[in-house]
Amino acid sequence: MKADSINLDGKAAGSIDLDDAIFGLEARADILHRVVRWQRNNAQAGTHSTLGRSDVKYSTKKIYRQKGTGGARHGARSAPIFRGGGVYKGPTTRSHGHELTKKFRKLGLRHALSAKVAAGELVIIDNIDIKDAKTSALAKTVGALGWKRALIIDGTEVNADFLQAARNIETINVLPSQGANVYDILKSDTLVLTKAGVEALEARLS
After folding, report:
1. What is the chain's percent helix, strand, coil content, to nearest 5?
2. Is 130 found in the same domain as 167?
3. pLDDT tens digit string along 60-88?
4. Are 77 and 41 within one domain?
């Protein structure tokens, strides 16, 4: 398919051919859901933990005699029923991640890119080369283009001046093509790809 491209000043900069096998699919929510779930689960720290019955420090002496007290039988102050006792089946440190094949992850990325095209939220830009790494100047440029919560994906390497200027703009996220992922693409309101980024993504996903 053909797509128009622009410059950073908003002027037309010709057109580019997009691979239909990557940008022209009918996006499937189930595929996108599985890939996003895999990403978010792998991002969880899994450091939550509580003290179990064997972890709390108490005397092991029987707290009172077995019979004749009129109360329930208890053998240790570390039982979960008592204040300060161990937590019964509490969370433990573990990994929340699970496996997902590379083939399926690539498929998810294709569907995410296609979803942006179908929603009219994909912008192709010639390049992101700027002369001065000024945050204020770039913020004005982005505002004039109407990009809100934009994800900008460049080629194998991101222009260093642009990256420095965009670092303090909260609504802009800049990634190299290798860092492109389903979660960030779907989270953005506008997906901006440079021509180098398109070529790198097509090489990665073909």
Report:
1. 35, 15, 50
2. yes
3. 899 999 999 998 999 999 999 999 999 99
4. no
